[in-house]
Give the backbone structure.
Amino acid sequence: DAKTTQPNSMESNEEEPVHLPCNHSTISGTDYIHWYRQLPSQGPEYVIHGLTSNVNNRMASLAIAEDRKSSTLILHRATLRDAAVYYCILRASNFGNEKLTFGTGTRLTIIP
Amino acid sequence: KAGVTQTPRYLIKTRGQQVTLSCSPISGHRSVSWYQQTPGQGLQFLFEYFSETQRNKGNFPGRFSGRQFSNSRSEMNVSTLELGDSALYLCASSTVGTGGWETQYFGPGTRLLVL
């Protein structure tokens, strides 16, 4: 599986935007970029995913570099409930590849 | 729609014993994956079942096994427990497991403590 690199930790003030970076220089042309997050004492939850174009949903936005070697998860207005570990994961498109390879993720702290 | 449920939520066992954990996927989901989470190793993939067949397997010893029933419910078993098996065991389900664009939905996990 192609690897991703994320900062170990980040801090942000409440109600401000947060940009979480992810490098994936060995991404293949058919790999999807997924983001999951894990809140304290919970299982991971899906946040967003994309292939080539930027994506928006109710939780966040995903900005993908033109060469696809990096991406950024954007939380438009962070709240205390967004404090979690965020994982950037690459997923191959072949059928039956259900394995998620988690890295160490970025621990996001929100400052009130 | 009910989410992924896992039972039991907490479990204490002693070394040498065996344990069975259960996972009920979201209704209609046919793929069930299991993960182990420890402070030292993070989240690691154990195996994935689809239509009662193990389709993917991680790098864990044979003491870790699983199965899936016709209703897509899954169980994982750990035999001859070791102290290092203490972990949070997470189950995740998805519709047909196409990879790529598909989302996995995680349960709350079973926290296993081996004494």
